[in-house]
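A reminder from the course coordinator: this example appears on the midterm review sheet, so study it carefully.

Given structure:
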């Protein structure tokens, strides 16, 4: 199937194209991605409409992330678009079969689908045609939270090899076909996941008034990430080109927390994760997603080892592409 974006230099593979760009050399064309990670993905409704617009057969999409309503793009579509990368998504409770329970809101009487995930988090989606699930109940959202509450929480096992079952075979096939291979972090970022566990308001108050308690939570999430990478990268590191992480710190105009708070409480945790990943897979490029205005944090991202920033949120304050190019190359 002919690509919409053919290379002016036939024979250049997607992997070569991406690695050339990441080496700060001009490739034959801009490398393209669609769906290798959640943050480069497409909603199932948009995906079905895109298939229709391209004249591709109507099929039932496979879920990439049922909570966000994202589809796994099929090979016929991403080949048609000339996508250069292929993604690998470790098993987690957002991409295995979501078991939905029908509930009725006690106050409004509205109907919802409810889903309880492996972290103990409850998500809800309006029935019958909600587009995605929203976080409804954080498991440790309670007054007088203690460090023992955090340590005794029923944390999921991230070091279980079943989370990456079959991924090496996929990666080898993608590499043989000339695609760059992206391996995704198994769960949301340290700051974002902490919000889901204790609730956003609680977390922000905790960071401001009891940094030691917030640190217990951040440390536990960091340990889970390190456990995953210690398990996964000895098995997959040699066939992976990019490792993706995500943690949102930006709003449209500023940051959710101050740069000082980020540097004191969260940056050291990410530094530990990036150091471990760099040790286990030194050749793999390090991708980091953080929405909104993260301009004051970009030097910190670079310092911990980020090589790819997603997105360049051009309508957010401070994220003008020309200025970013001037300052960071």
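Designed residues:
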């Amino acid at each position: 199937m002919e690509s919409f974006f053919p290379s002016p230099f036939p024979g250049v593979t997607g992997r070569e194209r991406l690695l050339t760009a990441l080496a700060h050399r001009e490739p034959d064309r801009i490398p393209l991605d669609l769906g290798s990670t959640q943050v480069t993905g497409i909603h199932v409704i948009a995906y079905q409409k895109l298939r229709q617009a391209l004249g591709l057969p109507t099929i039932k999409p496979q879920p990439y992330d049922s909570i966000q309503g994202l589809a796994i793009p099929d090979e016929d579509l991403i080949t048609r678009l000339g996508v250069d990368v292929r993604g690998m998504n470790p098993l987690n409770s957002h991409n295995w079969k979501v078991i939905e329970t029908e509930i009725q809101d006690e106050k409004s009487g509205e109907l919802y689908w409810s889903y309880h995930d492996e972290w103990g988090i409850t998500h809800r989606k309006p029935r019958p045609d909600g587009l995605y699930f929203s976080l409804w109940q954080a498991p440790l959202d309670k007054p007088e939270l203690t460090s023992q509450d955090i340590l005794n929480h029923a944390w999921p096992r991230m070091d279980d090899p079943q989370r990456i079952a079959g991924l090496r075979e996929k990666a080898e096939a993608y590499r043989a076909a000339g695609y760059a291979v992206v391996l995704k972090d198994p769960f949301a970022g340290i700051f974002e996941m902490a919000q889901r566990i204790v609730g956003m308001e609680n977390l922000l108050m905790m960071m401001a008034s009891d940094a030691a308690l917030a640190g217990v939570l951040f440390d536990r999430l960091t340990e889970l990430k390190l456990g995953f990478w210690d398990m996964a990268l000895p098995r997959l590191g040699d066939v992976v080109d990019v490792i993706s992480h995500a943690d949102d710190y930006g709003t449209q105009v500023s940051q959710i927390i101050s740069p000082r708070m980020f540097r004191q409480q969260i940056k050291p945790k990410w530094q530990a994760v990036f150091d471990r990943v760099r040790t286990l897979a030194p050749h793999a490029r390090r991708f980091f997603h953080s929405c909104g205005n993260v301009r004051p944090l970009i030097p910190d991202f670079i310092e911990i080892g980020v090589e790819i920033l997603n997105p360049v949120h051009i309508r957010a304050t401070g994220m003008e592409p020309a200025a970013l190019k001037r300052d960071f190359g």
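The chain has a mean pLDDT of 94. The chain is about 35% helix and 15% strand.
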